[in-house]
Specification:
two-stranded antiparallel ribbon, mainly alpha, 2 strands
Length: 109
């Protein structure tokens, strides 16, 4: 049996990346949960309905906004974290629901 060191290194690298991503995800989730529980993250008010059945555009906008607020100050210092552009899916969700809310307001809904 021949050992393929580059293949083994690639497998280990993927496993480490996966574990690191899981740790980051858990830390992000914990930070969001703490922010929601306190209603504040580093002096910025954060609120959203934690009921999974609450699916209004406003609920979804608030969830995305809270995630971005926490992400952008993830290291515990305001503005020292990941820019919103590093989380394009969340940023696009926030923009999408902001547009829907703006449309509803302009149509008197």
């Amino acid at each position: 049996m021949v050992c393929d060191a580059s293949r083994q290194t690639s497998i280990v690298s993927r496993e480490i990346t996966s574990a690191t991503n899981t740790l980051r995800h858990n830390a992000q989730k914990s930070s969001v949960n703490s922010a929601v529980a306190s209603g504040d993250f580093l002096g910025t008010p954060v609120t959203f309905n934690v009921d999974p059945l609450a699916q209004s555009d406003k609920d979804k906008f608030n969830r995305a906004t809270t995630c971005l607020i926490v992400l952008q100050s993830f290291n515990g210092t305001r503005g020292v974290g990941c820019p919103a552009a590093s989380a394009p899916t969340i940023l696009n969700q926030q923009k999408h629901f902001a547009n829907l809310l703006e449309r509803d307001l302009s149509h008197g809904s």
